[in-house]
């Protein structure tokens, strides 16, 4: 019983770590007014009839803090890359010069910054919901083990251990969200 419960708690801890990792990946996609290749990392391009990640058909780089440059491996991909950027509805306008696709990143307005902060807080809340769901599963496992004969006081200690773990991950989520908010609101 003890080993099985420990394994499940470790599995839960891994799930919580995954929630933090997912939050960080999602926050990379939120723009902060600076050009970053991660802004278009989730895009897929129609490559000869099959959806393909942008980074597999082109080199994406930030030529300066306000411009993204997308250099396709094949010139025939310029059109599909432009189309994918428009369809992604990122609020960015690609410019095709026949060699590369350039995207100028417009400065963020105060209103847009507030909307982005709201989105960031929402992503943080989603991560916390994931943490709470994992906690709920673990707590139910502990209660089940106690019903099956696991010592009650040891079960209480396990529940406290799980709650402390969730609290520490919650603090990490808060720190990550706060850092991103600060980044967005800094002009």
CATH superfamily of the largest domain: Ribosome-recycling factor
Q: Any idea what the radius of gyration is?
A: 22 Å
Strand order of the largest sheet: 3-4-6-5
Look at the structure and give the CATH class of the largest domain: Mainly Alpha
Number of domains: 2
In percent, how much strand structure appears in the residues? Answer: 5-15%
- Helix and strand pattern: HEEEEHEEHH
Shape-level CATH architecture of the largest domain: Orthogonal Bundle
Question: What percent of residues adopt helix (DSSP H or I)?
Answer: 55-70%
In the predicted model, the low-confidence regions spanning at least 5 consecutive residues are none
Q: Could you give the distance between the termini?
A: 55 Å
Integer average pLDDT: 87
Number of helices: 4
How does the overall form come out from the CA principal axes?
Answer: elongated
Number of extended strands? 6
Biggest sheet overview:
4 strands, antiparallel
């Amino acid at each position: 019983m003890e080993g099985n419960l420990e394994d499940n708690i470790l599995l839960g801890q891994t799930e919580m770590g995954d929630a933090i990792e997912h939050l960080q990946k999602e926050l990379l996609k939120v723009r902060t007014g600076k050009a970053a290749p991660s802004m278009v990392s989730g895009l897929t391009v129609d490559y000869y009839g099959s959806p393909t990640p942008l980074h597999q058909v082109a080199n994406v780089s930030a030529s300066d803090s306000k411009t993204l440059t997308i250099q396709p491996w094949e010139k025939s991909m310029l059109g599909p890359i432009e189309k994918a950027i428009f369809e992604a509805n990122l609020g960015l306008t690609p410019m095709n010069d026949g060699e590369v696709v350039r995207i100028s990143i417009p400065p963020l307005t105060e209103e847009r910054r507030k909307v982005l902060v709201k989105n960031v807080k929402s992503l943080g809340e989603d991560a916390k919901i994931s943490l709470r769901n994992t906690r709920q599963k673990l707590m139910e496992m502990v209660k089940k083990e106690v019903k099956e004969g696991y010592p009650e006081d040891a079960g209480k200690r396990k529940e406290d251990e799980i709650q402390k773990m969730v609290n520490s991950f919650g603090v990490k989520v808060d720190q990550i969200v706060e850092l991103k908010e600060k980044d967005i609101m800094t002009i």
